[in-house]
Amino acid sequence: MKNVFVIVTALFVSLNGGMATAMSDSSAVPTEATTSTETTTTVASDTTTAGGTDTGPGISTPVVLEMVLGSADAPVEIIEYASFTCPHCARFHDQVLPKLKSEYIDTGKVRLVYREVYFDRFGLWAGMVARCGGQERYFGIADLMYKNQKEWIAGGNEPATIVENLRRIGKTAGISDAELDVCMADGAKAQAMVALYETNAARDGINSTPSFLIDGTKFSNISYEDFSAELDARLAE
């Protein structure tokens, strides 16, 4: 584990552009989101519904799959931009998403695309662990990270503690130590994840979390009631 921690810490220094500097200089998990800088890494992307698998290590140009809940044929699409270290995002996943899922996503009315935001290195590490479980386990792992957010980021300035806490969550979800070692040492995948985030965030004007696009219209952190009213209006069109 020690060697993997050295690798997972060092790989962020090699990331292209300002994002690498921001992550390597980050001394603590921020309580509020800040704007990130651009990278120049090129990445191929793919979009599938939940049930596929994410690209493993050893690929020269990793494919970073979109993580999706709901039917591809749903008439309304929500794109969520969120950070695993964002308290407001944790609140959304605890209080709002379950209602959206039962009322709109599971009923075939809405499709949710979840996109990770990396305002700090710990958020990127969390994304690497979540993706290590593949699409079948991704949202279950994401739920664990949000529900236990205060606990796993309690290490603050100690990256080794954060890594161990994230590994513990991964193992709770059934990922082996060997699998976690491979996933967290995959520098090419980390670069591809950052590059895709930078491309999407720049295009959609994302500078805070959580942010949402409902059929292309951007909203900031909103209540379930406001979500419901907006979705109902669009479904009635």
Tell me the helix content: 40-55%
Average pLDDT reading: 81
> SSE string, helix = H, strand = E?
HHEEEHEHHHHHHEEH
CATH class of the domain at 60-220: Alpha Beta
- Head-to-tail CA distance between termini: 54 Å
The name of the CATH architecture of the domain at 60-220 is 3-Layer(aba) Sandwich
Q: Quickly give the structural class.
A: alpha/beta
Could you give the order of strands across the largest sheet? 1-2-4-3-5-6
Report the C-alpha radius of gyration, rounded: 17 Å
Query: Remind me, CATH topology of the domain at 60-220?
Result: Glutaredoxin
**What are the low-pLDDT stretches, counting only 5+ consecutive residues below 50?**
1-7, 11-59
Shape label: globular
Largest sheet: 6 strands, mixed
CATH superfamily descriptor of the domain at 60-220: Glutaredoxin
Q: β content, as a range?
A: 5-15%
Tally of contiguous helical segments: 10
Number of strands: 6
Could you outline the blueprint of secondary structure elements for this entry?
Blueprint: H1 2-10, H2 18-25, E1 44-47, E2 63-69, E3 76-82, H3 87-105, E4 110-116, H4 121-132, H5 134-147, H6 149-152, H7 159-172, H8 177-184, H9 187-204, E5 211-214, E6 217-219, H10 224-235
Parallel strand pairs: 1-2, 3-4
Antiparallel strand pairs: 2-4, 3-5, 5-6
Helix pairs in contact: 3-5, 4-5, 4-7, 4-8
